[in-house]
Structure formats: C-alpha cells, structure tokens
Design a protein that fits this description.
The chain is of the alpha/beta class. The chain is built from 17 helices and 17 strands.
C-alpha cells in the first residue's frame, strides 16, 4: 500500500479536522505558526544560503565564537579594578550605592553588607594599560587585542533567565538564540558541518550544580534545523552518528534515500518546515560521518599550538579542548560556535573554586585569540568572552571565614570583552562607579551588545525578524542600539 494512503486511512478525527481547515481558519493558523517563508516549500539549497536580503551591509565578521561563562564571573576580581574597594574592605556598603536595588534571595537586604576587596592584586598591561587581575595572567598578555566593555548591565538576577536573556534576548525560554538567528539569516558555509555548534565544559571538582539547558542553544519558533548542535565530550561527538553494527555506508545511504523520498512526498503535501528539517538533518548526519572524524583529529596540530592551549587541550570535554575545536570549526566555515563553561557561581567558593575556573579557562581563551590572529582568522571572526551578570562587590558569608568567602549575583554592572571581527582593539569602553556597583558612564545593555554583534556580521538588528503568532520578533526584542564606539571603522 502507498504509505501516504495508509497514513490517511489511519488519520484521527482530530487530525482530519486540523488539516481540513480552510479560508480564514487557514490564514489564522498560518499567522500563529510563522511567516510565509516558514511554510513555503523552499528548496533546501536556497535555505543553506540564508535569506536573500542579507547581509544588509558590508560585514566585518563571518563567524562568531562566544565563550560564555555560566554562573556570573566576578568583574571586581578579574577585570574591573577598584582601589576604593580595597581601601573600604570590611566596611558596610554605603546606602546610596544600593538604594532601591533588588538582589537575589541569597543576599536579601543588601543594607549593611561588608565590602570585599579583590582576592588577588591587579596590574596594568600592554600599551593600552588595561587592568587585569593576577588570576588571569594569559589574558593579561593579549590586552592590546581586546576591547573591554566595563559597563554591561542586564535585567535578570538568576542564572537560567539571565543566560537565556543574553543568548536569546528573552528571560523566558522559547526564543531563538543568537546562533539560530545567524544560521537562519546567513546560512551555512559548509554543508558537511553544522552552522551552529555548542561545546560545553565544567571544571573538575566544582560544587556548582548548574546544568546546561537545551534552550541555551535552541531555535525557539524558528524551524528546528537552525538550533545548535551540541558536541559531546565523550563517545561520538553527536549521538547516533556512527552506523549501527552490521550496516555498511552504502546500505545506510540507500535507507536515507528511501526515507527522504517519503519525507519529500509528505513535505509537498503539508508544507511543514519540520519535515524539511528532518530531511536536511538526516543528510547532514550522513555527511558528518566523514567530516567530524577529520575535525576532531588533532594529530596534525603542531606541538607548539597544543602547548599554547594548555595541558588539558587533548582531554575531550575540557574548556581547552573546546577552544581548539572552536578554532577548527570556524576554520571550516561553521558560522557560530558557543563555548560554554559552567561553575562560575562563587557564593561560597571565591577563594577556592574561582582559582580553578581561571586556571582552566584563562590560557585557552587567550590562546584562541592568538591562534586565530596568527592564522589570519581574527579579522573576520568575532570572539566574545562574557557571562550572564557580574558579582556583588560586597561579601556573601562571614568576613572571618576566608575559605567560605563568596559574592552574590550582580546584574547592575559587569564586564565582557571582545576581539577581532572589526572590533576596536586595545580599548576599554564604559566604566562602573568607584566600588564596581553601578554604571558610571556609557551603559551597554544586553540588547545593545546583541545589536552590535549582529551589526558586525552585516545584519541590521531591526530588520532581521520572524513573524510568529501575529508579531514580528527579533533577537533584540524592541530595544537595542549599535555601540558604534566599539567598532574599528575602515
């Protein structure tokens, strides 16, 4: 029997009624599920190339590597030097700095909390004179390639909503993430690898209980073919990539061809974009059987490159290994690589686990920038270092119990840095106040940061939209301005 006829014979009453809606009902349904592009049976090759009107202007970057540090790296201990904080160590935070401010339930009322000096000394480095903590000696060596943004601010005070906000523009899950928007708009340069790859790691021995939620790299209401592909740290990088025992490559090829033929018939009948996703992902998985082993084989990497990334570089699942993989991915045309490292939530481990976090990530992050630069890839690769918020300049814990010192979540000002991709190197933009609690000048909201990233890839953030449930959505919601002072205009 024809499989489509068999499917129709078994269709339920509910499915029949849903499929036979016409007229106004059809129009309403279409507006609920997305725009015309989502439902049209657009050839797959067209979608690989992205939207026809992009880029909107000449891009300065082709790829993005976003090193995202889950948990909230402490700006006042790493990059935002405040001499007054050291001078006022152990004294109550002045009321005028925290008036009307909301903190997490772990802090509760901030009034009376004691200020805590940086746990390690700061020094100035490079021709730019950037201040960097002794916690980050390798980053200190490349400050003249970096652009520090010390006036970042956000709205969420807890991890998952704040991470979602940074990556998708919304505290609530369900919106497309940055990588999904880039893949949707700009397409894929390498048909043998995903356009959007996610690599995750956690420092060994950390007590942080954070997990990586799939919506951190989700496609939201965009077709799911645009979501990030997470590479695992053990076994096959992608599940089920290998052929089952007893199945040859030619047999699998024939199986996929038959499945594709059935899916093509169903796609022609229904126009469901998820069927197109299924077809394309089956094909991508087949091609990845040859491309991924080559990608992950580090045997041809010179010893001096491996040494540059640090001792953990050949250990899969580490931040060092993931940074090298990020370089190899963009080298092969992957549009967006999201390198996520969890464990930065130092509520009670500032003097213990923060050292481990910095030791595990400082050298690889600096090596990634240097490696891209020496290969001529930094010019068109935008590298981003950041987290979802900073940490309070006042203490969480007992001042007399140094091994248990900590800092709470702090959304009101924090530091990110950028490199390459047409960003102005060797500068510091914006500033916090003299205690690192509030913004003193040139505030940069998360939406402004997102708008600037898109701008560097040739995208006007107000024009890259997708209609869903009757509204045109975008990464920056209804906000955001490009921070032009960060751009190295030519």
């Amino acid at each position: 029997m024809d499989p489509l006829q068999d499917h129709q014979r078994l269709t339920t009453r509910r499915a029949f009624l849903a499929n036979c809606a016409t007229g106004l009902g059809t129009a309403t349904l279409a507006s609920l599920f997305g725009n015309d592009q989502a439902f049209a049976a657009v050839p797959r090759g067209t979608r690989e190339m992205g939207l026809p009107d992009l880029p909107h202007h000449l891009p300065r970057a082709k790829n993005v590597i976003y090193m995202f540090h889950n948990g909230g790296p402490t700006h006042v201990d790493m990059f935002d030097y405040k001499p007054l904080l050291k001078k006022m160590h152990g004294k109550p935070v002045p009321d005028e700095y925290i008036a009307d401010k909301r903190f997490s339930t772990m802090t509760g009322e901030a009034k009376g909390k004691l200020l805590l000096e940086p746990i390690e000394p700061f020094n100035q480095y490079g021709e730019s004179g950037a201040w960097v903590s002794d916690l980050m000696p390798h980053t200190a060596k490349i400050v003249d390639d970096l652009c520090f943004v010390k006036s970042m601010h956000t709205e969420a005070i807890n991890h998952a909503p704040a991470i979602s906000f940074c990556l998708s523009g919304s505290e609530m899950p369900g919106r497309p993430t940055l990588g999904a928007w880039l893949t949707y708009g700009l397409g894929n340069e390498n048909a043998n690898l995903p356009a959007y790859v996610v690599l995750t790691s956690v420092s060994k021995g950390t007590t942080c209980g954070q997990i990586f939620y799939d919506f951190y790299w989700g496609s939201g209401f965009l077709p799911s073919r645009f979501q990030g592909v997470k590479f695992r740290g053990a076994g096959d990088p992608v599940l089920y990539l290998s052929n089952p025992d007893g199945m040859s490559s030619s047999v699998r090829r024939g199986l996929l061809d038959d499945i594709a033929a059935l899916n093509e018939m169903k796609l022609e009948q229904s126009g469901d974009p998820e069927i197109e996703t299924r077809i394309s992902q089956y094909e991508l998985a087949f091609r990845m059987q040859s491309s991924v082993p080559e990608l992950t084989d580090l045997s041809e990497e010179p010893d001096h490159i491996l040494e540059m990334y640090g001792p953990q570089v050949q250990e899969r699942g580490t931040f060092a290994h993931n940074c090298l993989m990020a370089r190899r991915l963009v080298e092969r045309g992957t549009r967006c690589v999201q390198v996520m490292h969890a464990g930065w939530d130092q509520h009670r481990s500032l003097t213990t686990e923060l050292y481990t976090q910095c030791e595990d990530t400082d050298q690889p992050a600096a090596a990634l920038v240097q490696d891209l630069k020496q290969r001529g890839l930094l010019d068109d690769t935008l590298v981003i270092w950041g987290g979802e918020f900073g940490r309070t300049p006042f203490l969480q814990g007992d001042m007399n119990d140094r091994p248990q010192w900590g800092r709470d979540h702090h959304p009101y000002v924090f530091t990110n840095w950028l490199a390459g991709g047409g960003i102005k190197p060797g500068i510091t933009y914006g500033a916090s106040d003299d205690l690192g609690i509030n913004i003193a000048e040139k505030p940069v909201h998360v939406h402004d940061f997102q708008a600037t990233i898109l701008h560097q890839l040739g995208i006007d953030h107000e024009r890259l939209t997708y209609q869903f449930q009757g509204r045109h959505f975008r990464l920056t919601d209804v906000h955001g301005d490009v921070v032009k002072e960060l751009l190295n205009e030519v």
